[in-house]
Amino acid sequence: MEMTKSLKLRVYITIVCISFLQGLQYGPSPVLKQIGEHFPNVSTSVVQMLITGPSLIGMVFALASGVLVVRISKKKLLLISSLISGIFGVLPLIADSFPLLFGSRMIYGVALGLATALNTAVVAEWFTGNERVTAMGIQAASVGAGMAVTMKGAGSLGAAVFTNSYFINIIGFICFALILICLPETGKAVQSEGNRITVNSRVIVVAVLGLLEFMFLISYTTNISMHLEGSLAGNSVVSGNLTSIFSIAQIVIGLVLGVITKVTKRATMPVAMCSFVLGAVVLVLFPANFAMQCVGALLCGFSQGVFIPTAMVEVSNAVPPVAAAMASGIFTCGTCTGQLISPFVLNTAAKVFMGEATTSNVYKIAAVGMAISAVFCAAVMFGGKKGQAGQ
């Protein structure tokens, strides 16, 4: 199908909608402290899993998407994802129950996994070459926008009563309507000779890097509302603003990703990892200084905004077009695994090496871990051959 300006705009709108569905993962972030206080018998790690837990289900369905696309069209899968996000996002409003809230978040993981994998697959289906890099940058920007709107909105809605933050999931229903209208129905993916669902070692290695990136990076959103001190402590509006800044950094970076990659070339992903290291150091040093916390949020947001779309381009270029969903699913499994194990790994490491799992100690562990990961990433990017383009 020829890409007219009108069609390209409709595909971009779809990409933005899918990214907003992904952004709903971080809805509870600004009110995690309030949720923890409201359910005092629930451990901090389990409360943090309201953000990371959907990744467990997400990685299963991200991987499954590679097979599902040859049986169900991408459009239908995305419409299903939208409805799941909306319905199970607002379902916890019916009862004051942590098991209901936790269970609803786990079911949202189905939508998260499908949306994350299919976002890359939609880009790979409609764009090639430099346009694919640009589209991935727009995707990253829209993921940042989705996170910013979600966390700012959830923080504001939940300022008085934390349960009001659940209303932010109405975004799922809005995305359903827009995807229904905008995304052309291209049917099920079709395999052919030379265009089969296969993956290679490059995809696996990049997925491992994604696991490391997110295991440390996710500590920003899971800890920030509990990390603030002084006059900033316990203020969901402040934590919502900071997580929004984190997301806004991704928006800006995504829009200029093509320029950044031309400068950093193969060092793009290691540079992204190093940005988080600097951000974590700032967070540890200035927990009561709003301006410096904003700097930390920007540096951490830069890390995600650069790393994820660059890695997605790597995996989509490494396989044939029909395998883009599978490659993206494998990478998503890596990032989801990193998110899932992050609270337990970082909290345990903080206790073992520093005596106590305070947020500052967690950020210190994350900074050290990401610095080591950046060295490994540099060795991979400069030591191996680049993946073969899928198109």
List the topology elements:
Layout: H1 5-23, H2 32-38, H3 44-52, H4 54-68, H5 74-90, H6 98-126, H7 129-157, H8 171-182, H9 201-217, H10 219-227, H11 236-255, H12 257-264, H13 268-285, H14 290-317, H15 324-354, H16 359-383
Helix pairs in contact: 1-6, 1-7, 1-8, 3-15, 4-6, 4-15, 5-6, 5-8, 6-7, 6-15, 7-11, 7-14, 9-14, 9-15, 9-16, 10-11, 10-16, 11-14, 13-14, 13-16, 14-15, 15-16
Describe the structure.
There is one protein chain. The protein is built from 16 helices and no strands. It is an all-alpha fold and 391 residues long.
Which descriptors apply to this entry?
single chain, 391 residues, mainly alpha, 16 helices, globular, disordered C terminus
Summarize the structure.
This protein is mainly α. It has helices at residues 5-23, 32-38, 44-52, 54-68, 74-90, 98-126, 129-157, 171-182, 201-217, 219-227, 236-255, 257-264, 268-285, 290-317, 324-354, 359-383.
Q: In terms of quaternary structure, what is this?
A: single chain
The dominant shape is globular
CA distance, first residue to last residue: 16 Å
Alpha carbon gyration radius: 20 Å
In DSSP terms (H or I, runs of 4 or more residues), the helix count works out at 16
Largest sheet: none
Query: What is the helical fraction, as a range of percent?
Result: over 70%
Calculate the mean pLDDT score and round it: 87
Q: Which structural class is indicated by helix and strand composition?
A: mainly alpha
